[in-house]
Specification:
The chain is built from no helices and eleven strands.
Length: 117
């Protein structure tokens, strides 16, 4: 079982920056593919960025060049640096861990990001 705890959400003006962090406990962190997803009311949860155990990252087209995902396997932490935020980036952001061997997936409780125009 993997537990994920997010932090760092909040209110920011358009053009500003926020840094989200997710600390994992349980499991073997370095094996997991870690990711950030977001969801707004009435819409499906969408993938924002994912990073493999060896640091390979992929981003949604909508955030490419503005967001950066990183991980510190020694601290069981994955971070999402969000720059040049837009009102459409506002959502609840969720940390995700996926074991690539078993396929098991775990979610954090979510953290709210609000971007004012």
């Amino acid at each position: 079982q993997v537990q994920l705890v997010e932090s760092g959400g909040g209110l920011v003006q358009a053009g500003g920056s926020l840094r989200l962090s997710c600390v994992a406990s349980g499991g073997i962190f370095g094996f997991n593919v870690m990711g950030w997803y977001r969801q707004v009311p009435g819409k499906e949860r969408e993938q924002v960025a994912v990073i493999t155990g060896n640091g390979g990252a992929n981003y949604a087209d909508s955030v490419e060049g503005r967001f950066t995902i990183s991980r510190d396997n020694s601290k069981n932490t994955v971070t999402l640096q969000m720059n040049s935020l837009k009102p459409e980036d506002a959502a609840v952001y969720y940390c995700n861990a996926r074991n690539p061997f078993s396929g098991r997936t775990f979610w954090g409780q979510g953290t709210q990001v609000t971007v004012s125009s």
